[in-house]
Amino acid sequence: MEDTTVKLLGNKGSPYSHRAEVALRLKDVKFEFLHEDLAHKSDMLLRHNPIHKKVPVLVHGEKPIAESLIVIEYVDEAFEGYNILPSDPYERAMARFWARFIDDKVIPAFWMSCWTDGEIQKGFIAQSKETLTTLQRQLEGKKFFGGDSIGLVDLAGCMIAFWFAVLQEVAGINLLNEEDYPVLCRWAEDYCSVRAVSESLLDKNILVAFFASKKEKIFATKAPVYD
Amino acid sequence: MASEKGVTLLDFWVSPFGQRARIALAEKGVQYEYKEQNLVEKSDLLLKSNPVYKKIPVLIHDGKPVCESLVIVQYIDEVWSDKSPLLPSDPYQKAQARFWADYVDKKVFDCGTRLWKLKGEEQEAAKKEMIEILQLLEAQLGDNKYFGGDTFGYVDVAFIPFNNWFYSYETCGNFSIEAVAPKLVKWAKRCMERESVAKTLYDPNKVYEFVCYLKKKFGVE
After folding, report:
1. Can you give the residue ranges of the GST C-terminal domain (chain A) (predicted)?
2. CATH fold of A6-78
């Protein structure tokens, strides 16, 4: 008989792992969360994601799926119920575009703003402000990027909604705040209040402690410590 | 722009990203207007259609712009779904196709650019990386006719435009792709037999001419 069990190899500290977890919860999929120690990755993870060796990896039966945005689309297509992506092709294209914008532009600019200093930091902060402003504009008139309920772009934006505040605190910067980004901050609160999301999130203090403990390493390498 | 019916593609002749869109449209038999863009003095239409990145390709369908080449290809596949499906219907096969197209996206162009732009040790490193990337893709292809299996699909569309840059990478990096990934070369020949690909891709020598122009422009060599 075909194995239909669902396992998620992930780490609660990773926003990318969070995306996959929320997708599964939105669809009411029964799954087993297998915690990965990112400093000592399991044989199972390395076997199922030999190319990137990162979390998350969804294993559906014998089939591994890697890369968080790809995992979300797979979950949306393989399981019934909640629609994470819209059905209209143009709306789907827009969702994919903005999800990629978050990954390619918003996150890197913010990340580098946290872990650089001097003139270089000023440059990244300016970039980051621009990307956040551009993204915030997409929320005009909507509760979530997905409309009335969370969708692909909201999941993609989870790092903004929860992790950015943590990183800011550890790095000692104040980029994403209510005064400058009232709409984005309101969205962040609404996103975190969604049950599938809140059930997936770690306590903020634990996350702060985690990044604080890695601060020196991140400053030196700029590499993400959460995948 | 608002309510103009039809399909327009804002593009730049040698762009492998634009070629992905052109190949997809040709596979689907879609009639469209091709508008070559000046990337030094960008048109109002381009700036209005892609205000975020200001880049080509941009597909404009009934007045609505779609940006980012792989987003465009998926859009084309979903709108013109009655002909030549590019993505498989099975969710897992679809996820695999997306994974490998994403891999091509993340790796090939950047590494290739470093290959022709850099010199010395850095160029050697880029060459080593390119060989690794090509061998990995070749392993993924296996003994299949296409990355899509028996049929030309999404990953083939994503990757084949880079084929006509291989000559430039080989010349700048001083290595032979046929020597390191012979199955890929055979795959590329098969793809070039398709009208959609043959009519879209430019002669490798023309691409190399363009790379030389870029090298001059960036003061390389």
Report:
1. 88-219
2. Glutaredoxin (3.40.30)
